[in-house]
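Good day; I would like, with your permission, to put a structural problem before you. A protein sequence and the structure tokens that stand for its backbone fold form the material at issue. Thank you for your consideration; the sequence and its tokens are set out here:
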Amino acid sequence: MFSTITSAPAKQSVSETITVLSGRLSSATLLEDRRAAILGLRSFAKEYPASVASGALRSLIGSLSKDGEDVDTVKVVLETLLMLFSPNQDSPEASEEIALWLADEFTQRQENITLLLDFLETNDFYSRLYSLQLLLAILSARTERTETCVFTAPLGISRLVAVLDDRREAIRNEALTLLTYLTPSSPDIQKLVAFSNVFGRVFDIIAAEGSLSEGDRVVEDCLILLANLLRLNPSNQSLFREEGYIPQLAKLLESTYRTGKGGEEEVADWAQEQRNRNIYALLAVIRLFLVPGAVGTSQNQAAFWQHGVLYHALQLAFSHDAELSIRAEVRAPPQFAKYYA
């Protein structure tokens, strides 16, 4: 009985403390005082996400606008918001509804999403990384609304694509992941992404990561992004051809059976598995150009023949270095039959 009496005030104390901190954040005139309040709220965000969000969410978002020039404050605010999206599983306030509530607050006001995209203009590591992670969390909770907000934001798509040029892998990879989740279903977004010079950037990343043979999951994600942009999208396929990227597909195919290492190297099981996944992803991208009866298929066939994609596909199909499952995946499409005459 005594333990019950002593434990009750502790919970009330947490609630009161969060209320005080929320009030301080919304009313403080000095940056240092607002930052101190945010630090206090951050300490409760994982365990009491509903309480922190209900009392301080709008003030936290407002601080991103009011104190956006102070990278230390921005970092703490973004960390706190990310914690609210992923509370401790054993938290008494943990609920899937919290993520929806948070995402609603962001997506019901266009300026909130635009604000996060604005932080991609800064070179600060944490401002960029956490903004991307927060956008992904919002997108996962409210997909269609987030797509609309990003599409509508001034230069929203082009700013996201430009982050692929960031030499810091953590940021670049986060941008790649966000674009992969942003592009599966919206033709308008797919077109904007494609016209933001994304193809060249993707192939640059694939080359930097060791191509298909040595690249890790990042290479597979690059190919998934390509597939999202090209699937049943004749406009993007035409742009891909016109900008001269068909030879890049041929080069990647050639690399699958010409490693330049004699074929005798020992490859760890996990590395071989990832290599196979990369090759499967490439073959899936190539098939998207060869859908029977689709607009542009005949032009794609001609470009594949001209730049050696078919030749390298057949070489892979009969390569002794390729695994049987991969060789079985490679089939010369019947549309190419006219070239055998």
Confidence is low (pLDDT under 50) at residues 1-10. The chain has 20 helices and no strands. The chain has three domains: 13-94, 99-182, 199-259+267-341.
